[in-house]
Design goal:
Elements (H helix, E strand, L loop, with lengths): L2 H7 L8 H4 L2 H8 L12 E6 L5 E11 L2 E11 L3 H14 L4 H4 L4 H7 L8 H23 L10
Antiparallel strand pairs: 1-2, 2-3
Helix pairs in contact: 3-4, 4-7, 6-7
């Protein structure tokens, strides 16, 4: 049995059980992250560390025209922090298939609701994921506005 499974099944009252601290959605996205990894030939990407040292990097592929841009694929990489991984995973699920302008309207509160809540000490992870999404979309718009620059950039 792994240490994670031991932690999840722990009855030790000195160490809080993860199931008491985190929602089933958070635990599921942490143990089984969706869309994990770097996306090659991305239309937009951004990321970096947050105020606590956690980091999230995100990549998106977009299709359609200027009036109807849809995020076809979204991926992320994060460190092992349960909050950052679960937020990156849930957020990439939320935005896949969504119009870019709709994705820009997602808030940290909406992301926390999707996960079934986050402990207050982990709220900054949702904020970091949303900041990363918005920076990724800004990068996409900048690349689209000056498409010739993509020839000189590695993704």
């Amino acid at each position: 049995m792994s240490s994670l499974e031991n932690n999840l099944n722990s009855q030790d009252h000195e160490t809080p059980d993860l199931k008491q601290l985190y929602s089933p959605g958070v635990i599921d996205h942490w143990q089984n992250p969706r869309n994990l990894g770097r996306l090659t030939r991305a239309d937009g990407h951004a990321g970096g560390p947050g105020p606590c040292g956690d980091s999230i990097w995100m990549w998106i592929k977009v299709s359609g025209n200027k009036n109807h841009e849809v995020i076809d694929q979204a991926t992320f990489i994060s460190d092992v922090c349960i909050g950052a991984v679960s937020c990156g995973s849930a957020l990439t699920e939320m935005i896949t298939g969504m119009e870019v302008q709709q994705a820009m309207q997602i808030t940290a509160e909406m992301l926390r609701e999707k996960l079934g809540g986050l402990p207050e000490r982990e709220h900054h992870c949702a904020d970091l994921a949303i900041k990363t999404l918005k920076d990724t979309i800004r990068d996409y718009h900048e690349k689209r506005a000056a498409g010739w620059k993509q020839l000189y950039q590695q993704s």
